[in-house]
User: Which sequence fits this backbone?
DNA sequence: CTGTTAGCGCGTTCAA
DNA sequence: TTGAACGCGCTAACAG
């Protein structure tokens, strides 16, 4: 019952069994109307009997299209990217496309081979969350297939991309803390070389300027890459002579690290951060989160890509930039007005 | 700079530019020793100039192997499965294999087409987390390629599979609650039709038997499918005349739903559950979690598959069943012996 | 309604 | 050291 070697049936085999040519089998399987009902049935019977399945590789070669698109993400273990991947899958499936997924593990140097490999496999297009700022390999890939950027913009490449409102979201969340009277808000950020890191810092800064406060340089920590580094940075900040009274974190992992640090230190501080995460509503902490639909980033990226694939033969449309909106969610401490979530807008 | 239509260069094009035959290009790209250094260089130059990439589809057709394996999971949004997918990726990459990922969304009826589609795409093998108990389509797929089951066992199919210690883990965690003196432990479980659901209930029951307690039927809720249903079930239990004094949850989503219910109800109850999850250590709840390495399930499954692929031509080895170990983690309430995690084995 | 021819891009086999 | 012929499995275009 396991895979029988040397036995994979071909159209020819099916045809022989059904007493027709391979061509007729092809027609039946394609639902070509010009086939008599009698032969149709014979063919289907033979297909069933042999367990025949069309060889999509051969079809791709003949038809010139693999029916696959490639997706490269930086870290599938981050719910953000798995949601993004689901969004891509959803739209791809609607269009009869299969998704080949690669994970760069945030190692920028691994990305080129992943991208090249996907191109070799004849994917018809690519959606990429670029891991680094070097993007020549993506330029090269664009000579073969359309490429859509997700979550981070292209650097000097003319192509579609889907972003979230990084600046706006960071500004808005920071403004919430400032409006609550905080004047010493710490910034816990990912590497500034990353677009999102830079952009969210800009938003943080802008919010301060709007209320006429200069952020204290000693409260700014950048280059945090995961929950553990964020935890250490937070503990460090708490131990400073003049510690912060609130925190702003640029992504979910950093927020979680900061929260863990506060927990271990036995302290509570208002925390704002980019990205919502599981159980954020039951932590009993004053939490201000920049939330958005990660699936939607994937869906939009897939739509842009599909659109380009469908207009392959005409003039390529001008490159587009889509932005997915953010909104701020506030969770209160349980001591506030009850344990429920405090709904909030801007 | 975008994909130039009608321009994808072939080996022939490269050969023309390098003034050799396509065959020689093929040899150069394959690192075939029998090529003069001079021509090698000319060929590589031409490859660079044209941005040539071998057509993997054509190679697959000729060589009879796509270099891809298929992975079907039920819910990529669940960190458990994205970790599993990462584990698969890791091992696949080591062996030069690419992973094509499909998400069944826990809809058992969608699974057959996903599996068939992957087979059509000439994947060399499949790793499947089966969504339902109907598995004929998987039997059919096994006629084409080896199939490894992950997280849930095959039903009447003779093939490899990787499981976690469902029974053992559930028994152990439940035993912890019972050892703490609880006699009314509620069971919040996923559908009993799922192997994991049944198995974990068995473990729950066994732990009770071992201390001579008969579980109260009114405290057993099965068929929970997500965090929301678990939350409702928990609230319902809490409102019963004779409510539970502790909870056992069969997976991460159910645990989270239960925790949310407790939070909303303003109550605290010891919770035990299968699967670890982010921030479980900072909730300040008495939490007993059955933890294990989800990546490892993927890695082991991939190893089993690769092993079969490598022995394709010999007699297929007898089917194997691998089990990934679990261990119990206990987090204390902050009122206990300090806010840190209480490390525990047992 | 059905079959034959040809070729998608590549690599194995054989010959030069 | 290099090239020509052939075929992997399938299907568009043309017979019949």
Assistant:
């Amino acid at each position: 019952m396991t895979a029988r070697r040397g036995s994979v049936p071909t159209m020819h085999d099916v045809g022989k069994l059904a007493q027709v040519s391979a061509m007729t089998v092809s027609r039946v399987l394609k639902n070509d109307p010009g086939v008599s009902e009698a032969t149709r049935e014979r063919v289907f019977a033979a297909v069933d009997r042999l367990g025949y399945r069309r060889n999509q590789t051969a079809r791709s070669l003949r038809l010139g299209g693999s029916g696959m698109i490639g997706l490269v993400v930086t870290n599938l273990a981050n719910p953000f990217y798995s949601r993004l991947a689901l969004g891509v899958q959803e739209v791809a499936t609607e269009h009869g496309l299969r998704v080949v997924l690669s994970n760069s593990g945030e190692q920028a140097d691994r990305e080129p081979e992943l991208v090249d490999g996907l191109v070799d496999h004849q994917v018809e297009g690519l959606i990429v969350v670029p891991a680094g700022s070097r993007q020549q390999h993506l330029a090269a890939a664009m000579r073969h297939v359309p490429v859509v950027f997700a979550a981070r913009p292209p650097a000097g490449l003319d192509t579609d991309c889907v972003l979230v409102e990084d600046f706006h979201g960071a500004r808005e969340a920071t403004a919430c803390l400032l409006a609550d009277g905080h004047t010493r808000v710490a910034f816990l950020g990912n590497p500034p070389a990353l677009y999102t890191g830079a952009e969210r810092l800009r938003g943080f800064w802008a919010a301060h300027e709007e209320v006429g406060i200069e952020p204290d340089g000693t409260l700014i920590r950048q280059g945090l890459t995961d929950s553990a580094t964020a935890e250490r940075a937070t503990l460090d900040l708490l131990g400073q002579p003049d510690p912060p009274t609130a925190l702003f974190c640029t992504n979910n992992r950093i927020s979680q690290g900061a929260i863990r640090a506060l927990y271990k230190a036995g302290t509570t501080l208002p925390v704002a951060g980019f990205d919502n995460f599981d159980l954020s509503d039951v932590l009993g902490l004053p939490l201000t989160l920049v939330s958005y639909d990660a699936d939607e980033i994937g869906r939009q990226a897939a739509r842009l890509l599909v659109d380009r694939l469908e207009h392959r033969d005409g003039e390529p449309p001008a490159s587009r930039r889509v932005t997915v909106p953010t909104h701020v969610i506030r969770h209160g401490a349980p001591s506030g007005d009850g344990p429920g979530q405090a709904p909030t807008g801007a």
Q: What stands out?
A: Chain A touches chain B through 67 residues (CB under 8 Å). Residues 335-346 of chain A have pLDDT under 50 and may be disordered. DSSP finds twelve helices and twelve strands in chain A.
